[in-house]
């Protein structure tokens, strides 16, 4: 997804959004528009809610309290206050502010559910949500408050509160009162009616939004890991023989085949490897597991991402609310707000992210040990003993990998009862998503250090690198110096991290040798 997405307009209708559309709005500021078909469906469904509001029989969410208070019938004159009280009381988040791209993803996905016509809100509610998104008004949402069931209640309530002109928002990063921000944008604050407060807060939108963002980042990192592996093979004078296509076909996992093909493509034509081939056959015979088994690990990582994308696709097609207005007009309590399916894959991704970082760190460590780096200086230092080279860069990797292993502990295996035991099993999907964001950041940093270290090793070898690996080194050397005496290393690591996160190094490779798989 490029920054050109800022000029894109995403249509929100009865059908499902795509992961790319979510990222376009969340990360790159694409505008949204509601389809006329969706507005018509929303209006038709609202008529059914209006009918039930007049019915003397209590209907959950329309004429009753919520959660453990659902047995209380609320008279008509108190129902607007009921919805307002619901939003105000549930906007109970605490802790640091959540990132703006996460909040925008959450808002888009709630809007998408509203536009299915299954929530029973008036069209003005959906339109106001779209207007706030398009105005760049970002409600302040705080880290803690969601148990992932009944959906992401507190985060969504903070967003709903902003639509009412209450609470805090940010506009262009500046903290503002929500009412003042709406007024400046020419948006009339909402006055909620039956069912609408509940419809605004009852969904898996936060955890799903973070899943979509993570899938996008991890797909990019899968290719980046293959580039790092190819550079390490070259820098360690390893062999490409094990990545041959026919060997991958013997174990037909699609991710494995893609990873192996990418490594071959990036390292193809290396003079460094060609010159070292006979020596390798005579004295080395095999590379270590961290090099030789890279496609198996990176391939499993890839296949897990695609499983997660399948789950995300199902959830993007969902109308998550409780109660829901069924297509036949029934208003029915249900359990679709439970975040378990999303929480499971968020945790799964944290596991494979930790493992891909772990194998990357092991490859990096091989460069630093003269007993294993095949003729390079200890720690790739210019003058070992006087210089320490990349010794502490590996320490940084090791610290991150250790943290990623802790983050791989599943949130979804935990559950804390809430709402006076009415909501007695929860998904903790929001927590799973929050820690996965930290895991993605950690993997980006670990791969950046491997690339930085491998580039230094390749520079210390005789001969020309492959076209693919050479493209990385050329791009890197535009802002990061090559081998030499010790210097302030942190800025070089941070610059490499920036290039990895932005996809700049991947773009350099694909610009030179074509698209990777």
UniProtKB/TrEMBL annotation:
Keyword set, alphabetical order: Histidine metabolism, Lyase
Regions that span the bilayer: none
InterPro entries per record: Aromatic_Lyase, Fumarase/histidase_N, HutH, L-Aspartase-like, Phe/His_NH3-lyase_AS
Main location as per UniProt: cytoplasm
Molecular function per GO: histidine ammonia-lyase activity
Membrane recorded as keyword: no
EC category: lyase
Domain of life: Bacteria
EC number of this enzyme: 4.3.1.3
Biological pathway: Amino-acid degradation; L-histidine degradation into L-glutamate; N-formimidoyl-L-glutamate from L-histidine: step 1/3
Subcellular location: Cytoplasm
Gene3D superfamilies: Fumarase/aspartase (Central domain) (1.20.200.10), Fumarase/aspartase (N-terminal domain) (1.10.275.10)
Keyword Methyltransferase: no
Catalytic activity: L-histidine = trans-urocanate + NH4(+)
GO terms of biological process kind: L-histidine catabolic process to glutamate and formamide; L-histidine catabolic process to glutamate and formate
One GO cellular component, as annotated: cytoplasm
Stated family: Belongs to the PAL/histidase family.
Full protein name: Histidine ammonia-lyase
